[in-house]
Write a structure and sequence with these properties.
Layout (H helix, E strand, L loop, with lengths): L1 E5 L3 H9 L5 E3 L2 H7 L3 H11 L4 E4 L5 H12 L5 E6 L2 H12 L3 E7 L2 H9 L4 E4 L1 H6 L4 H15 L4 E4 L5 H10 L3 E4 L1 H6 L4 H17 L6
Helix pairs in contact: 1-3, 4-5, 6-8, 8-9
The protein binds SN-glycerol-3-phosphate (G3P).
C-alpha cells in the first residue's frame, strides 16, 4: 500500500520523507490556505522534495477552466497530479487531461457510481472520502470496499486512493480491503507508531535496566 501525505506543510513532509514513508503528496484548497503559501511555490517545493505524484487541485467549476488550470498546474513539475472534483465537468476535464498525458486525481468521491464514472474517464486516482461519510453517520469504509470490488470485477486500472482518513484504524481497514493508496495527515501516520503496550513495556525495561547499574558502550 502506498502512503501519500495529505498536507502542504513542507517540514512535516520532509520528516516523513526522510524515513521513506512518503510515496506521494495530496493537497487541496483548504490545505493550501492552512500552509499560508502560494500554490505554485509550495507545489514546486513539494515536487522537488518528493519524486512521487503530488496532487494540486483546480478551482474552476467548468471543464474548460479546469483544463486550463490543470495544464497550468502540470507545468510546475512532471510529477504534478491534477486534482479535479467529481462533477460532470470534472469528468470532462479528467478525460481531456489524461488524454493529454497528465495524471489526474478525481476527488470528492462519495459513491461507487461516481467511482465507476471516474474510471471510465481514465482517472489515474479516485479519491473517496472516508471521514466525511462517517461524519454524516454513513460508513466510509464500506465505500472503499465497494469500489475495490467493482474495480477488481472489471479490471479498472484507476488507483483507489482512500482520502479523508482521520484515524489509525482507517489506515488499517484500508489495508485490509486493499486500497492501493492512502492519503493521511502526518499526525495519523505518526500515530501508527504508538501502542500503549509499547510504552508500558519500555517503562518496565527502563526501570529494570536502571537496577542493573550498567551502561552500554561506557
Ligand atoms: O485531501 C482530501 C481529504 O483527505 C480531506 O480530508 O479530513 O478534510 O475530510 P478531511
Amino acid at each position: 500500500m502506498r502512503f501519500f501525505v495529505d498536507t502542504a506543510d513542507i517540514a512535516a513532509i520532509r520528516e516523513l520523507h526522510e524515513l521513506g514513508m512518503v510515496d506521494g503528496v495530496t493537497t487541496n484548497p483548504s490545505l493550501i490556505l492552512k500552509s499560508g503559501r502560494d500554490i505554485a511555490e509550495v507545489t514546486r517545493e513539494i515536487c522537488d522534495l518528493v519524486p512521487g505524484p503530488v496532487s494540486a487541485e483546480v478551482i474552476a467549476s467548468d471543464a474548460e477552466g479546469m483544463i486550463r488550470e490543470g495544464k497550468h498546474l502540470a507545468e510546475i513539475a512532471p510529477n504534478v497530479t491534477v486534482k479535479v472534483p467529481l462533477t460532470w465537468d470534472g469528468l470532462k476535464a479528467c478525460k481531456a487531461l489524461t488524454d493529454d498525458g497528465h495524471m489526474v486525481n478525481v476527488t470528492l468521491c462519495f459513491s461507487p457510481a461516481q467511482a465507476i464514472l471516474a474510471a471510465k474517464a481514465g482517472a489515474t486516482f479516485i479519491s473517496p472520502f472516508i471521514g466525511r461519510l462517517d461524519d454524516i453517520g454513513l460508513d466510509g469504509m464500506e465505500l472503499i470496499a465497494d469500489i475495490r470490488q467493482i474495480y477488481d470485477n472489471y479490471g479498472y486500472e484507476t488507483n483507489l486512493l482512500a482520502a479523508s482518513i482521520r484515524s489509525v484504524n482507517h489506515v488499517i481497514e484500508c489495508a485490509r480491503v486493499g486500497a492501493d493508496v492512502i492519503t493521511a495527515p502526518p499526525s495519523v501516520i505518526k500515530a501508527m507508531a504508538s501502542h500503549v503496550l509499547t510504552d508500558k513495556g519500555l517503562d518496565l525495561f527502563n526501570a529494570d535496566w536502571a537496577k542493573t547499574g550498567q551502561k552500554i558502550g561506557a
